[in-house]
Design a protein that fits this description.
411 residues; globular; mainly beta; 2% helix
Length: 411
């Protein structure tokens, strides 16, 4: 369940052009009923996450040279979790350790500011910073130990856009981020895919990443698009590591640890061409290469990296409010697997084969507020699998959708 509310005010104060408040509530229930092959023990779980969020964002302009966006966020997340068991042969009922520490909370608080600065008629800079604090409390509950963590960090980004010509821009960005270990990382206890059994680790540290990208954006009368190269360097990557022990059901016991670093290199490109007589052509392509480095200096392919993929298609305007879209989605083979990938039951140890699907969409703008969609995906009923997915994708898929839009009068 998800509820969301938004309230906006224009020019509440002389130096503030816009003020926006948002509040949201989300509840996720992950109930499970499992029984290991050959075991008489049936397990039933009830796991629930409830999160409340409140944000405030302000924007301010100073002539045509400075645009500021700034604000604060608060998110409060709480977890309830329990697990019961029943021996289907004897009828005996058991109270088992829950998947997560019952009563765990993860609360986050942040303040941020981002500025867009016109340095020169041809050059614009974007500078941003964010201060984040996370309060994580994992009660002992039914475990041997609990943990309370207070983690904070300063992250930010910087970008430059230089206008080479009136239609072509050169863009470069650099940014630093981090991810705190969440309740799942710190306290999960239970079976995982690939015949694994996870045990908690309350001593995890945040992951950190430094990313750089650069590329070109162009926009002509009929042609627009972009091409970017990117590089990311992850440190203290949280990884599920085998402990060497096994459970009574012969599952490999693993534990999340800050272990390795990962480098990612990639290319992204997209384009759109408006031909005459209502025809449009479009396409996109993404390629990612990743390498994981171990503490002993050895390297190996990183885990669960998607293969080269993209889509290409055409769109034709049948009338002023009715469009027919036909496109191909494609993915190359992914044979560059990590040792974890090769053990993962969701991934073929010989790699994931490439695939291509044919898709059609009919878009109808009924009026300014209502639109309809009829889509037929995987028209030729191909059997294929997204890399890392546990099942093959659905066959022929038909979608009918109706969308209504309401405006409050704000821009």
């Amino acid at each position: 369940m998800f509820l969301h509310g938004r309230y906006r005010v224009r020019r509440p104060l002389p130096l503030i052009d816009r003020l926006e408040f948002r509040t949201a509530f989300q509840e996720m229930n992950d109930d499970r009923r499992t029984q290991a092959f050959g075991s008489p023990l049936e397990q039933r779980e009830r796991n629930r996450s409830r999160m409340v969020g409140v944000t405030a964002q302000l924007t301010s302009h100073w002539r045509d040279r400075l645009f500021l966006t700034y604000g604060a966020e608060v998110y409060l997340d709480s977890i309830t979790s329990r697990r019961r068991g029943r021996n289907r042969e004897t009828g005996e009922r058991l109270v088992l350790q829950s998947r997560f520490a019952n009563g765990a909370t993860l609360n986050s608080f942040a303040g941020y500011v981002q500025s867009t600065i016109r340095l020169h008629p041809k050059m614009t800079a974007v500078l941003g910073g964010r201060v984040s604090y996370f309060d994580i409390d994992l009660p002992q509950a039914d475990r041997e130990i609990g943990v309370s963590l207070g983690l904070d960090d300063l992250t930010g980004q910087a970008g430059l856009t230089y206008r080479l010509t009136p239609s072509v821009n050169l863009v470069a960005n650099i940014g630093r981020g981090f991810r705190v270990p969440n309740v799942f990382d710190l306290s999960t206890l239970g079976p995982r895919p690939g015949n694994r059994f996870n045990i908690p680790n309350p001593d995890l540290k945040p992951e950190k990443v430094l990313s750089v990208d650069t590329g070109l954006k162009w926009s002509f009368s009929r042609l627009r698009g972009e091409v970017f190269g990117f590089y990311s360097d992850f440190e203290d990557k949280i990884e599920a590591v085998p402990t060497g022990a096994v459970t009574s059901e012969n599952r490999f016991i693993v534990q999340s640890r800050n272990l390795n670093s990962v480098r990612l290199l990639g290319l992204e490109a997209s384009g759109h061409f408006s031909a005459r007589n209502g025809w449009e052509l479009f396409g996109s392509f993404t390629y990612t290469w990743a390498e994981e480095r171990f503490p002993n200096g050895e390297t190996a392919p990183a885990s669960r990296i998607p293969p080269a993929n993209g889509r290409v298609g055409t769109l034709y305007a049948l009338t002023h409010n009715l469009e027919l879209e036909a496109f191909l989605r494609f993915s190359a083979d992914q044979n560059r697997l990590s040792a974890r990938d090769e053990r993962d039951s969701r991934i073929n140890p010989n790699g994931t084969p490439g695939w291509l699907t044919t898709n059609l969409r009919l878009n109808w703008e009924i009026n300014d507020h209502v639109s309809a969609l009829l889509a037929v995906e995987n028209l030729f009923d191909k059997s294929y699998r997204e890399h890392g997915s546990g099942i093959n994708a659905p066959g022929l898929n038909v979608i009918i959708a109706l969308e209504a839009r309401f405006s409050s009068g704000f821009p």
